[in-house]
Write a structure and sequence with these properties.
By secondary structure, the protein is an alpha/beta fold. The termini are far apart. It has 2 domains: 212 residues, 3-Layer(aba) Sandwich (Rossmann fold); 185 residues, Ribosomal Protein S5, domain 2 (2-Layer Sandwich), CATH 3.30.230. α8 packs across α10. The strands form 4 sheets. The protein has a 9-stranded mixed beta sheet, with helices on both faces. The protein is elongated, with a radius of gyration of 26 Å.
């Protein structure tokens, strides 16, 4: 219960909402378009973003490029990179390899919060990159560095300084074994933006996803390619996930998946082989439980024999597909491999497969079909009701609506037969 609480003079008087200036919350582009897409236009002065990802995925490389672009883009604003995990010499060598040296880009290697604040006083940057927040210690916190209480205290102090001085701040965070952000859950509530940096170590593809964004949409995805000389954004990444075969190959089918609001074409591949022992189910880039369900529906509803065969299913280019809209393409790829009948290379398939064998509608079908048409695909198998023509839109692609999995298999075979008939004549 509150008692003896007296009123004090507010820091600023309340104003009509229309009189409040919005200039302080305006985005400043970072110069990295793919990151700006995720952020909603760029970084906001005084805003604090948390970028989390697995070790070695490329977080430091990306943010060093961001700091360089910031220093080169804004003559009136300095960029400061504080590294708590690497020495200044190590970061300098990486910057030289990436070609990101700049006179307005400052660098410090510190693990003490007081020293970090001292650098802020001396440099007065417009952008602060701290790598990483778990390595910074503070004498004001009683717990060990990296602990829950310690990380919360350090983050709170940095957020307060960023808000007070209008410094756009990016904090690097660690992740747990489960892929979540290490530290207290309150850490995500303290900052304005939470980003996840994802990627397979065996692939050059990297993706930045917005989990929380107070300054923009939280459903955008940025695509990057990591290479020896650094990292670059991919404005049109669909080509990474496709193999344009000269001749049709059984066991392949292309789908259109949504990463945030961005449609990406991805190729699913399957190999079905006879086995003498228990049949194996091996996946790469797909959900194993989802594949098992699709295989069961294929055998029960479409009479595709799979119970005594090994099934291998994968995606091309290291992309991971989790959304159910890829079910139809996976089913067609498996059926194509099992029956040794190719899927036409200019055909895509989009749809969720239900346990009764029905093909269910998916979100943003017109956008998916428009992306497929842009990349040269001429036919699409979609659920009933997904034809953009029924909504007054024309994506420039032949749309074939299929109510169930059996109809989809027959339609794919008919399209293939029409393509082969002129060759036979």
């Amino acid at each position: 219960m509150l008692r003896d609480v007296s009123a004090i003079a507010p820091a600023a008087p309340a104003q009509p909402i229309g009189a409040v200036s919005a200039t302080e919350a305006m985005h400043r582009p970072t110069g990295v378009p793919e990151l700006d897409r995720v952020l909603g236009g760029g970084l906001v002065p005084g805003g604090v973003a948390l970028l989390a990802g697995e070790p070695g995925v490329g977080k430091s490389t990306l943010l060093l490029d961001v700091a360089h672009q910031w220093a080169a883009r804004y003559p009136d604003s300095l960029a400061l990179v504080v590294s708590g995990e690497e020495s200044a010499s190590q970061v300098r060598l990486r910057a030289e390899r990436m070609g990101t040296l700049h006179d307005r880009l400052y660098l410090a290697a510190e693990t003490d919060l007081s020293a970090v604040l001292g650098h802020l006083d001396a440099v007065r940057p417009g952008l602060l990159v701290l790598d990483s927040v778990q390595t910074i210690s503070s004498s004001a916190a009683d717990s060990a560095p990296g602990g829950v209480t310690h990380v919360r205290a350090v983050t709170s102090a940095l957020v307060a300084v960023a808000k007070e001085r209008g410094i756009a701040t990016v904090l690097v965070g660690h992740v747990t074994k489960d892929g979540g952000i290490a530290g207290p859950r309150a850490l995500e509530h303290l900052v304005d933006v939470v980003l996840h940096f994802e990627g397979d170590r065996h692939s050059t593809l990297r993706m930045v996803r917005a989990v929380k964004n107070r300054f923009g949409a939280a459903d955008e995805v940025g695509c990057f390619e990591l290479h020896d000389a650094g990292i670059r954004g991919l404005a049109d990444p669909s080509g990474l996930f496709l193999n344009r075969h000269v001749e049709a190959v059984p066991g392949t089918c292309v789908t259109v998946t949504l990463e945030g609001r961005r449609p990406l074409l991805a190729e699913t591949q399957s190999l079905v082989a006879s086995t003498q022992g228990p049949p194996r189910r091996t996946v790469s880039g797909l959900d194993g439980a989802r594949l098992a369900m699709v295989l069961a529906v294929l055998e029960r509803r479409a009479k595709v024999r799979l119970h005594d065969r090994d099934v291998f299913a994968a995606t091309v280019g290291g992309v991971r597909i989790a959304e159910p809209a890829a079910d139809l393409a996976v089913a067609l790829a498996v059926a194509s491999a099992a029956r040794d009948v190719p899927i036409p290379p200019d055909l895509i398939a989009v749809g969720e497969v239900g346990l009764a064998g029905e093909v269910r509608p998916v979100s943003s079908a017109p956008r998916r079909l428009a992306e497929a048409a842009r990349l040269g695909f001429r036919r699409a198998l979609v659920p009933v009701g997904a034809d953009p023509a029924t909504h007054g839109q024309a994506p420039g692609i032949e749309v074939i609506e299929v109510p169930d999995l059996g109809s989809a298999l027959r339609a794919a075979v008919e399209v293939w037969a029409r393509q082969e008939a002129p060759l036979e004549r």
